[in-house]
């Protein structure tokens, strides 16, 4: 419970290193102050997904004439980019409705 699942196309994983994706999640998905688990609001998960796409696309834009490093080399590749961000929650009877 509380694990975050990232599903993405090659447009994500060819342009972003795994540690960059983890950093995005850690910046946006701030742990609650109490030890009790509380699922992240869907809007926050959406924000993570949008940031991953934005950062993936940014890798293919030269900054001051320089391309950034990616898992497939400098500048990555311009590609369609799809990502789904989900959080694992306990299945309860309330989910049937």
Secondary structure layout:
Layout: E1 4-8, H1 10-13, H2 18-28, H3 42-58, E2 83-87
Antiparallel strand pairs: 1-2
Put the structure in a nutshell.
This protein has three helices and two strands. With 97 residues, the chain is of the alpha+beta class.
Question: pLDDT under 50 segments (min length 5)?
Answer: none
Structural class: alpha+beta
The percentage helix is 25-40%
Largest sheet: 2 strands, antiparallel
Q: Helix segment count?
A: 3
Oligomer: single chain
Q: Give the SSE order as H and E letters.
A: EHHHE
Number of strands: 2
Query: Overall pLDDT, averaged?
Result: 91
Distance separating the two termini: 20 Å
Q: Given the C-alpha coordinates, what overall shape results?
A: elongated
Q: Compute the gyration radius: what is it?
A: 16 Å
Q: In percent terms, what proportion of residues is strand? A: 5-15%
Strand order of the largest sheet: 1-2
Tags for this model:
97 residues, alpha+beta, two-stranded antiparallel sheet, 3 helices, 2 strands, elongated
Account of the 3D structure:
With 97 residues, the protein is of the alpha+beta class. The chain is 33% helix and 10% strand. It is built from three helices and two strands, in the order βαααβ. It has helices at 10-13, 18-28, 42-58; strands spanning 4-8, 83-87. The chain has a two-stranded antiparallel sheet. α2 (18-28) packs antiparallel against α3. The two termini are 20 Å apart. The mean pLDDT is 91.
